[in-house]
Amino acid sequence: MLWIALYLPELSLQIAARGLQRDRAIVIKDGPANRPIVIAANDIARSLGVQLNTPVAAAEALASQLLVVARNKDNETHALERLAAWALQFTPTVTLEPQQGILLEAAPSLRLQGGLDSLLEKIKAGCERLGYRVMYGIAPTARGAWWFATTMLSSPRRRGPSVVGRKTLDSRRSLPSNDLVGGGNDDVVDVCDDKNLRGRLGKLQITSLNWPIQTVELLHALGIKTLADCLALPRAGLIQRFGAALANELDQALGLQPDVRPLFSAPQQFHSRIELPAEVTEIDALLFPLKRLLIEMEGFLRGLGAGVQSVRVELEQGSQQRESFSVGLLAPEREHQRLLMLISARLANLKLERSVWAVSLHSEQLQSLSGKQRSFLADSTSHHVASRQLLERLQARLGKDKVKKLSLGNDHRPEYAWFIGNVSQRETINTYPLRPLWLLPQPKPIADNDIALIAGPERIEAGWWDGKSVQRDYYVARNSKGSVLWIYCQHRELGQWYVHGLFS
Fold first, then answer.
1. Within this chain, do residues 437 and 311 fall inside the same structural domain, yes or no?
2. Quick one: 322 and 227 in the same domain?
3. Is 144 exposed, middle or buried (0-12, 13-18, 19+ CB in 10 A)?
4. How far apart are CA 386 and CA 403, in angstroms?
5. 381 with 419, same domain?
6. I want to staple 152 with a disulfide (CB 3.0 to 4.6 A). Which of 94, 183, 330, 345 is the partner?
7. DSSP line for 59-97
8. Is residue 274 packed enough to be buried (19+ CB in 10 Å), middle (13-18) or exposed (0-12)?
9. Bridge partners of residue 471, in order along the sequence
């Protein structure tokens, strides 16, 4: 097994302060209403002397312009669930670490993803696009990977075929550089295998783990500072002093005891919502949150192996005021750039009568996307794809019912063999004999007697059911000028010819 832990140490700050001015000192508060404490702070707030776990009142005394935002645990949970759904594209085994991150069991997917390095780069790039700062840890056990991610153990880098050591991701921008994370700000990913798991875990400081303060203080009083010190204690005494839960965690981290975790199961439809930091009155300001939602939906769809043929965007403009619209596609799609372009075209014609304070995205029609076999020959479908994408853009900009196409009708009479229908309307295509693309509005008698018949006849006897009966024999002919015509004669008007269409 190979577990990858994604730890989001600043999730509360990123969620609660999303979209706020970056040049302001911001802190996140939590705890009792009468004495809240600072649980997260941005760089500006920390530069002013604000420290974590201090009363909010003390922080406000240090920074007069401090912006205090209440923690929203529901939004954090929702964000982690969206991240887990996005991660399903890499592996079906994803589990939540409440309020802080997710874990992926990646061993079965390494070959499919191109190896560990390739998989890590994909995950890192995706997290950056989603706007999350992430610390990573990798180990053969879930708890071990999580402890590595939350501590960022400092040790020499080693490389080898067994992925022992640490893999550099060059992710300085995506890793926090503050005291929210115990263990420093090294921009590497901890990777270890079964051979060195115990030794690597033993170097972890117990203060960096999420153990109760009373437990840590008691261990320190006994001279226990690292996990190696804990592992050296007699198990019976450890259980007697600290309970079986702590001993079980150590065994799970070492792989000596099963670590059963509930797997994340993605819903059958995608639904996500982003509350805006301030009321928005400009259409362009909605594109950024919509792009983020579409990136999340793309990962969700990749995990399901599906595409979406219709999405609904909902703009919340008050407690009871909502405006929504749907964007349809002619074929299943999941690329966020493509969907964003269509939604942008739809928004271009939208006039906001009220300010928007939240945006939601819903998938309405999901279809499986099967892989296509590539051809050695030139892509014969490129023109079709380009035409489809053009029609989708026109539909998004003008409206689904405003874009029409010529369709074949189920009628042999030429004047009734076509109709104007919707682009998305499915049609039954009949096989006709050779017919011209250009029909005259009304058939005209032929004055030229120098006509040479090329092909035919095509006999048509139809229309008796609606009172518009025709009895004609159609021919392909060439006149004296070299034009190729589509002509006919009535059954009862022998010798009288009419031209009904032109080939050239």
1. no
2. no
3. buried
4. 16
5. no
6. 183
7. HHHH-TT-EEEE--HHHHHHHHHHHHHHHTTT-S-EEEE
8. buried
9. 461
CA pair distance 53, 93, nearest whole angstrom: 35
| CATH code of the domain in which 374 resides | 3.30.1490.100
Sign for the pseudo-dihedral over CA of 468, 471, 473, 479: negative
415 exposure class (CB count in 10 Å sphere: 0-12, 13-18, 19+): middle
At 260-308, the pLDDT tens digits run 899 998 888 888 888 887 788 888 888 888 998 998 888 888 878 888 8
Please state, rounded to an integer, the average pLDDT across all residues of the chain: 79
Residue at which a domain ends, from 254, 281, 315? 254
Residue closest to 150 by CA, chosen among 53, 1, 9: 9
Pairing, β 322-333 against β 306-316: antiparallel
Cross-strand pairs, 459: 473
Tell me if the bond preceding 457 is cis, omega within 30° of 0: yes
Which pLDDT tens digit goes with each residue over 428-438? 555 556 778 77
Count of domains observed in the chain: 3
At residue 173, does pLDDT exceed 60? Answer: no
Q: How far apart are CA 367 and CA 332, in angstroms?
A: 6
| Domain co-membership, 425 together with 358 | no
Helices 73-87 & 287-304, crossing angle to 10 degrees?
A: 50
Instruction: Specify whether 137 is located in the same domain as 245.
Output: yes
Helix (H) or strand (E) holding 418: strand 418-422
Let me know whether 291 and 388 are in one domain. yes
Residues 317, 234, single domain; the answer is no
- Structure tokens given for 129: 């696009």
Kindly state whether residues 392 and 410 are assigned to the same domain: no
- Alpha carbon distance, N-terminus to C-terminus of the chain: 70
- Domain end point (choices 345, 367, 398): 398
User: Could you say which DSSP state residue 491 is in?
Assistant: T
The parent domain of residue 434 ranges over 404-504
